[in-house]
Amino acid sequence: MKSNNIKVTSMRESKRDVSRELAAVFVDGYQKDLAFLSSDRDKLIDAFEKMVCPDVFYFATLDGEIVGILACSNNQKRAVTIDKTILRNSFGHVKGRIAYHFMKNEFNKKLSYPDDTGYIECVATTGKARGKGVSTALMSYVLENEDYHRYILEVVDTNEIALRLYKKLGFTEMERKKESFSKTKGFKYRIYMELNVS
């Protein structure tokens, strides 16, 4: 798909290995959440490059550079598989073990959704791509090219830009869960949204 020089491709169909570039966008997009592991961006990229699942990732390029990512996971495959050994080797025994403990449920837990449901996760764009329609292009591409009848995603209540985008694409709120330690995390609720396309 092309739009304003934005081209969206699935990672599995890419003619070259984009794991590192994709991991870089992931690390930059989730920098606040990953800061407890390390402030060394390259070290974070090295670790997550080995844990992304190419079968569910899509990436957007703008003038040939990867500027956005999106994973459409399912009940068989998640976007990232948190690996205890990789975390320990990358961040040390103690920090790696703690990171695995806190991240495994977020990423490794099998989704309980039926086969016809896609789960949108890990949507991120680079700073220079924001406001240029990259997230919209990624979402539109996945909705047009995947075969799921229903899509679910999760967004925090403070991410107003993403909430507006998802509503514009037809997603509606289905559940709102109060977050523990919300002051520390910087948001009060996780909002779950769905889109039925059958």
**How many structural domains are formed by the residues?**
2
CA-atom Rg in angstroms: 16 Å
Number of strands: 8
User: What oligomeric state do the depicted chains represent?
Assistant: single chain
Q: Please count the helical segments.
A: 8
> Taking all residues together, what is the mean pLDDT?
92
- The CATH C-level name of the largest domain is Alpha Beta
The coarse silhouette is: globular
CATH superfamily of the largest domain: Gcn5-related N-acetyltransferase (GNAT)
Structural class: alpha+beta
How many strands, which pairing sense, and closed or not: the largest β-sheet?
8 strands, mixed
CATH architecture label of the largest domain: 3-Layer(aba) Sandwich
Strand content: 25-35%
Roughly what percent helix? 25-40%
Give the N-terminus to C-terminus distance in angstroms.
22 Å
Secondary-structure element string: EEHHHEEHHEHEHEHE
Low-confidence segments, given as residue ranges, are: none
Kindly report the spatial arrangement of strands forming the biggest sheet.
Answer: 1-2-3-4-5-6-8-7
